[in-house]
Predict the structure.
Amino acid sequence: MGRVTEDIGWLTYFETATKAYQMARYVDAEKLFQKTLEELDKGTDEAEVRRGRIKVHAAVGDLYLVQGWYSEAESAFRKAVGLNEKTTDVREEDTAEIFSKLAKVYRAQGRYEEVEPYFRRALTIYEKYPEKNAVDIAATLEGLADFFRAHGKYDQAEPLFQKALSLRESSVGAEHPTIGPISTNLALLYHASSKYDQAEPLYERAVKITEAEWGEDHPSVAIILNYQGELYRQMNKFPLAEKKHWRALSIRQKQLGLDHPSTAQTLSNLALLFHLQCKYDQAEPLYKTLIEQRTKDWGANHMHVAEMITNLADVYRDAGRNNDAEPLYWRALNITQECMGPEHPSVAKALRHLAELYEEKQNFEEADRLYKWGLDVSGHALGTEHPDVAELMAQYNALLKKMEPKGDGDGGVESEPD
């Protein structure tokens, strides 16, 4: 009986590579995509080969993009675009999708001047057929809006987010799972713009949609709850802030564990909230837990540890426990010097904490020494005209006035009566 050989076509390799990519088996996926290209090279139908190569290069771009290999992703996407431009029977929307992905690549690379033009090129194509491409238009608008938001261009971002939200609502319905993320992004924009009353209902809507899609105890719900907690803190609605942060903490502890960075973030937010309310006895154990966790994760001499040590010292100082705060401020200073170098602005900030503490303790000589040290460091690092340096100088001048010798009355000599 003769041997039967099976001709495995390029499409079979492509589908297998795509499955490997979806399963996060990226090394296998890359090899299979390469094998797909080799099989395509054997083809005789030029149009089919070109269309196949476009699909593969676009998929390889996605593969590199998800791994953070931005130069490789750009090269793959550009190959796909180049082939698209030579092909007459390719959907324009496929080119638009690649333009959007190139915009994301350039944003990740810090090539910001190229981000907006590529999003705009994608929009130009999609908007030729607005009804058919409503969801793609919304997604592209969101990408551009988020870019503007991240760069503080809130006035440009807001109408794009609003239009994207409206398009999604009319296309997929007001309760569709994709409405949650866009509601969150628009809420974040209003939050950053201090438009708290507009952010509040959008966060609430995002929570409800996310709960309906993933369940009430999903980590995605905790992310939005964390944003809500910070919003209410900034609105001075402390009981509401506390409620949101406690719920976020409960979810994160249950789903991610006590040692997860997201859990630590919520602990830090709660500690700050208690500190602001002068609930020092509740802030203290949270900061101690955070110091312990960060020491475990990063080592004893890391800036993440120094940050929490400083926060705990601030709690002690505000609670009138200056003797407890003092060694913590020194410890934070030593870590900062070791991590950042003796001339870094962070060192000046740590010195300022100590100078203020000694000034409160009426130890003016030590405060004087520390203010001078901090001014020397910050002056060299930031320049004497920097606002931080000017503020520190003002504090030092106030100390010098306290140190001036006290006069006796009007300085005159009282005469004896006749």
